[in-house]
Write a structure and sequence with these properties.
With 282 residues, this protein is mainly alpha-helical. It folds into 2 domains: 122 residues, Leucine-rich Repeat Variant, CATH 1.25.10.10; 104 residues. The protein is built from 16 helices and no strands. Helix 5 packs antiparallel against helix 6, helix 7 crosses helix 8 and helix 11 packs parallel to helix 13. The longest helix has 35 residues. This is PP4R1 phosphatase. Keywords: Repeat. GO terms for molecular function: protein phosphatase regulator activity.
Length: 282
């Protein structure tokens, strides 16, 4: 009780002291909550002030971005309105390190905020990160499955058209980016229908199987085998048959030895992981 009364006193006191700093009444109210002392929250929100970066610490916006999911969790989703403006300011910060920090934690924030707030406030930011520098995009890519599984099915399907864009990087030698894409696609197989897998994920998987870097190819063999497993269990058998026929045409009959080798490795993975009954495999 004494703690509550002390906090109540601090809230009232801080409200009086910060009234003058917010000119419009609505803006002041939008930042008021009763979970932590208001003065403490105001201090945190002021970290995005450009003058602070110049006079206090150039890294202050990055620290602010790093702490934001924790602050959001503490305040609860009912007080997200206090943080929304600050989050959007950080998401458009000139420093890529600040945007990268947010990109790596956006999936955690989505869990805290729930599907409605995520769809309204986080999806636009997420879409912006998808078009950002590779250093920022990797944060989104590493947790792509974690974020997309929180969205409604219709919203999730919209991203099928954009997955192809992850094959293009600022630096073509950035093979870890493509390896991470293959890893994420394996997880994404559970989120999409057999038709979506065949239409959208299959071409990406085949492209990754022909990658110049062996580490990317090895993960891609696993991706194709898991794809076959998923399609075989689907109600429409034509998808898996068409996929296997394409494997034969594209790799088994390839005029390059590396393509034929890829076919052997994919067969090995399918066999080892029991993705198909042996008669179907034969």
């Amino acid at each position: 009780q004494s703690m509550d009364s002390t906090l109540h006193y601090i809230h009232n006191d801080s409200d009086l002291s910060t009234n003058s700093s917010f000119s419009p009444e609505e803006e002041r109210k939008s930042k008021v909550q009763d979970v932590v002392p208001q003065a403490l929250l105001d201090q945190y929100l002021s970290m995005t002030d450009p003058s602070r970066a110049q006079t206090v610490d150039t890294e202050i916006a990055k620290h602010c971005a790093y702490s934001l999911p924790g602050v959001a969790l503490t305040l609860g989703r009912q007080n997200w309105h206090c943080l929304k403006d600050t989050y959007e300011t950080l998401a458009s910060d000139m420093q890529w390190k600040v945007r990268r920090t947010l990109a790596f934690s956006i999936h955690e924030l989505a869990v805290i905020l729930g599907d409605q707030l995520t769809a309204g406030d986080l999806v636009p930011v997420f879409n912006g990160f998808l078009k950002d520098l590779d250093e920022v995009r990797i944060g989104v890519l590493k947790h792509l499955h974690d974020f997309l599984k929180l969205l409604h099915v219709d919203k999730r399907r919209e991203y099928l058209y954009q997955l192809q864009e992850f094959l293009v990087t600022d630096n073509s030698r950035n093979w870890r980016f493509r390896a991470e894409l293959a890893e994420q696609l394996i997880l994404l197989l559970d989120l999409y229908s057999a038709r979506d897998i065949y239409d959208y994920l299959r071409p990406i998987a085949f492209s990754l199987c022909a990658d110049k870097v062996s580490s990317v190819r090895w993960i891609s063999y696993k991706l194709v085998s898991e794809m076959i497993k998923k399609l075989y269990m689907a109600s429409t058998p034509t998808f898996v048959v068409d996929l296997m026929n394409e494997l034969v045409e594209k790799f088994c009959k390839c005029h390059k030895w590396s393509g034929r080798q890829t076919f052997v490795f994919i067969c090995q993975t399918i066999s080892e992981d029991d993705c198909l009954p042996m008669d179907q495999f034969a």
